[in-house]
Amino acid sequence: MPDPTRVAPPKRRWRHRIPKSLRQHWKLPLAFVLFVVIVASVFGATTVRPYITGDADIIASEITDNITGTVDLFDTSVTHELSVEMTQAEYNDMITSFQKSGDKKWVTADVTIDGTRINDASVRLKGNSTLMGVRGIDPAKSAKEGAEIPEGIEPTQGPPGMGGLTQASADDPTSLPLLISFDENADGRAYQGMTELSVRPGSPVLNEAMALSLTAATDQPTQRYAYTVYSVNGSPTATRLVLEHPDDTYANSLFDSDGYLYKADANSRLEYRGDDQSAYADQFKQINAVDSGNLQPLITFLKWLDSANDKEFDAHLADYIDVESFAKYLATQNLLVNGDDMSGPGQNYYLWYDLETRKFTVVSWDLNLAMTGDATIGPKESASIGPGGQNGPPEGADGAAPAAGVPGKGPGGGKSQKVGNQLKERFLESGAFADLYDETYWSLYEQIYRSGAALRVLDELATTIPTSDGLTAQSLETSVEEMRAWVQQRTTTLDDIRSA
């Protein structure tokens, strides 16, 4: 089992630094190398001109300009700095385009990471809920007055420092969730092998960093992250969490076998819409092997899922889904009390289709609402998002209630915004998978909480998060103690449930 005390999700294993196609087809290159060695030995000084034949993808890489930088972005022993510079015209264009039409337009910016400047990069707004303030929508007021809130939007905010929903403002560029692209304006360009980085809103976002670390520590695919001292156009600095954003390089590093990675859209539903692939254009986005335009494995699965009765579901789900990894995913989301997983309003998940096993694996994504909600939910209860779906903030804390919890738990009794997901619901309701889920759940509970791993990760994080103009040492300490109390409550609750 991987060391659960590691703070950052582990770096790509060494073999993932070798192109996947080379890992899979190593015999041909090895034979060629041996051939060259033998020929050189036999012919001595005779000039040998090698010619490579076969699949060019074995050697070639889609990244043609990989900016190495000065230090590894995910090295936690270094204080990282990230700055974005753009003209006022570009900034205004990004904001007004979103305010008028909701369009998240790419604009040109210069980005500096740990002293390395990348000219003519691109940035755009990212997210849904956190951008309501940019459009002039007050989510709490809208919910109170009964106004319709756009689909995928949560009306509550989390307590300071504990993640949850942080509202962005156009008046404060550092508050905006941004997606940084290195190849939008320069094909083939990447920074340390990544074509995109996601700048998360809020500070210090301990909950998301912990959720990412604990997911990785239980040997599940996730994303790497780094804390940075962040600024925009020379603004006062803020502490921001930066994540690698899933691109084709990320997709090709997740597993040793070939496959397709699909991202669920925020407004998607895991439902069959017919055999025409175009019917799913606004539901799922193919991340890698995009030129193949191959949504057929997903459509085939959805068609079966739509028509399968309970008996067929129990008997044949394992033909389509890696049920062991799915049980692990679901158990982890519950243990971390993530109200915005694959069944939340954000529909936050990726699907990996393995071309060898011909089965799907669910990959977690966007854990910014994990570890903030009702720490007392049980293994079969669903964390959800909504005014009545959570307890209030810790006594004495400013801000609204946490954004995740259980319907009906906590004050207010308001209506939950839980969207649901038929695959998740049918799996948890099925007696055929009950033992698998229970065994998986309590095994992960031992790894994450009972072993003390969650608190060790928290202690390590507390020593690596940089302070800034926007995050004082005192504020960081307060956030750490709030998270510590949450973890202790979660551990105690699960201890009591298991011993009952």
From TrEMBL:
Residues 392-406 have a biased composition (Low complexity). The keyword Membrane does not apply. InterPro entries: Spore_coat_CotH_CotH2/3/7. Keywords: Kinase, Transferase. Residues 380-419 are annotated as: Disordered. It comes from the Bacteria. It holds the Pfam family CotH. GO terms for molecular function: kinase activity. PANTHER family: INNER SPORE COAT PROTEIN H. This is CotH kinase family protein. The lineage of its organism: Bacteria, Bacillati, Actinomycetota, Actinomycetes, Mycobacteriales.
